[in-house]
C-alpha cells in the first residue's frame, strides 16, 4: 500500500519484523558460458535503483505501520575468483545465502556469480524475506532486466497518513499479529516465528538442521503433458511428487496416514513487481492412502478449496504441516536470459535453523521451456535416488541436475 508517496509495510512484512524472521530468498540462474562482466555490473546497478534497495522508517504512532523508504547504499557485486566444481554448485549457493543481510537498514540483498568447471556459470540473487517474498524478488530482477527499475518517492508520510493507517490497516494488521501469537501459545518469540512461518519447532524442542537439499530441472512441456494426462496441473503434479518422495523417505508410503502441505498464496495484483511480502498460506490435506498419490484431479479439487479459503480469510503464517510447496510462477523472458541462455532458474527460501524432524520444503519456478524444482528437508535424508524413482514413475526425465 502506498500512502503519501511512501509504501507501508504489508501484513507479511510486519509479521517478519515483529517476530524477527528474515531467512534469505534466492534466485539461481544456471547459464551457458560466462556472463559478461558488464552485464553483471549493469544488473547490479539496476537492482540498486529498484524496489529491493530500500530500508524501513518507523511510523510516528504505535499502531501505524512503518514505511519503506528508498536507500542509496547496497552490498557490492561479488564474483567468485575460483571455479566451482559441478557437484559444489549447491554448496556455493548455500554459502551465498549466508551473507549478512539487514533489510531494515538498507542492505537486504546481494548479487553474486561464479564460473562452473563444466563450462556453465551460476548467478545468485539473494534477498532477505523480511524485505520481500519470492515473487517480489523475481519482480525486482525483471525490472532490473528491463532497465525500468525505480524507487518510489522517499520521505516520511504525514501525521495525517499515520493516523489514518493506525485507525484502519494498522490496527487490523497488529490485531492479526496478536491473535496469531495467542493461537501459537509459544513461550519464546523465535519459536513463535518458526512455527508461524516455516512450521519449525524451537531448537530445544525437537527442531533439527537441514539434512539434505537437491534440485533438478525438467522440460515444462513434459511436465504439462504428464499433469494433463493425470487430470491436474503442474502444481498438482509437484504436490503429489513432494508427498510421495517425503513419504518414501520416511518409510510411511504404505501407512495410510493423511498428508498435509502448506501452500503459499499470492495476494499480488496482476503486474505488481514492486510490493514486498504479499503472501498468505493455504493448508492442503491429502486423505490417507496406502501407496503413491497419483490422482491429480483430486489434488486439483482439494487445492482449489484450500486456496479459496486462504484468499477469503487472508490467512498468513505456516501451520504445522508435513511439507510445504511454493510455486513462484514463471519468470519472464527478459529476466530469464539476462545473464545468457539459461539452462534453468531455481527459486528457494533457505532456512538455516532447521525444522521438525521429517519435514520437507519444495520450490517450483518455470523459466520458458523449463521448470526447476528444489527440495530441502530436515531430519530426514532425501537423496537423488528417491527423486529419480519418483520422476521415473511419472515418466519424466530431468534435463539438468543442480
Automatic annotation (TrEMBL):
Report the superkingdom from the record.
Answer: Bacteria
Q: What protein name is recorded for this chain?
A: Diacylglycerol O-acyltransferase
Amino acid at each position: 500500500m502506498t500512502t503519501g508517496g511512501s509504501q507501508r509495510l504489508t501484513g507479511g512484512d510486519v509479521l517478519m519484523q515483529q517476530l524477527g524472521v528474515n531467512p534469505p530468498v534466492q534466485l539461481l540462474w544456471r547459464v551457458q558460458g560466462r556472463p559478461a562482466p558488464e552485464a553483471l555490473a549493469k544488473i547490479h546497478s539496476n537492482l540498486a535503483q529498484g524496489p529491493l534497495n530500500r530500508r524501513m522508517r518507523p511510523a510516528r504512532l504505535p499502531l501505524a505501520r512503518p514505511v519503506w523508504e528508498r536507500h542509496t547504499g547496497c552490498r557490492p557485486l561479488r564474483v567468485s575468483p575460483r571455479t566451482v566444481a559441478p557437484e559444489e554448485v549447491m554448496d556455493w549457493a548455500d554459502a551465498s545465502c549466508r551473507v549478512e543481510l539487514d533489510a531494515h537498514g538498507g542492505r537486504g540483498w546481494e548479487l553474486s556469480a561464479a564460473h562452473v568447471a563444466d563450462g556453465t556459470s551460476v548467478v545468485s540473487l539473494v534477498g532477505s524475506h523480511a524485505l520481500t517474498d519470492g515473487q517480489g524478488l523475481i519482480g525486482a530482477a525483471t525490472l532490473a532486466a528491463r532497465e525500468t527499475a525505480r524507487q518510489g518517492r522517499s520521505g516520511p508520510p504525514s501525521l495525517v497518513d499515520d493516523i489514518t493507517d493506525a485507525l484502519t490497516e494498522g490496527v487490523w494488521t497488529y490485531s492479526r499479529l496478536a491473535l496469531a501469537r495467542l493461537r501459537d501459545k509459544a513461550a519464546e518469540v523465535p519459536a513463535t516465528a518458526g512455527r508461524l512461518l516455516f512450521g519449525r519447532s524451537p531448537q530445544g524442542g525437537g527442531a533439527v538442521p537441514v539434512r539434505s537439499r537437491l534440485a533438478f530441472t525438467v522440460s515444462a512441456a513434459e511436465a504439462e503433458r504428464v499433469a494433463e494426462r493425470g487430470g491436474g496441473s503442474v502444481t498438482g503434479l509437484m504436490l503429489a511428487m513432494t508427498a510421495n518422495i517425503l513419504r518414501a523417505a520416511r518409510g510411511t508410503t504404505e501407512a495410510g496416514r493423511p498428508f498435509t502441505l502448506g501452500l503459499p498464496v499470492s495476494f499480488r495484483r496482476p503486474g505488481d513487481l514492486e510490493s514486498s511480502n504479499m503472501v498468505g498460506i493455504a493448508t492442503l490435506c491429502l486423505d490417507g492412502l496406502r501407496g503413491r498419490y497419483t490422482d491429480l484431479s483430486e489434488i486439483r479439487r482439494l487445492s482449489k478449496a484450500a486456496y479459496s479459503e486462504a484468499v477469503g480469510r487472508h490467512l498468513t503464517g505456516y501451520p504445522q504441516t508435513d511439507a510445504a510447496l511454493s510455486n513462484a510462477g514463471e519468470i519472464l523472458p527478459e529476466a530469464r536470459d539476462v545473464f545468457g541462455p539459461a539452462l534453468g532458474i531455481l527459486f528457494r527460501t533457505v532456512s538455516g535453523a532447521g525444522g521438525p524432524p521429517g519435514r520437507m520444503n519444495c520450490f517450483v519456478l518455470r523459466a520458458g521451456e523449463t521448470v526447476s524444482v528444489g527440495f530441502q528437508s530436515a531430519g530426514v535424508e532425501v537423496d537423488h535416488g528417491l527423486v529419480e524413482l519418483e520422476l521415473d514413475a511419472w515418466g519424466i526425465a530431468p534435463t539438468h541436475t543442480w
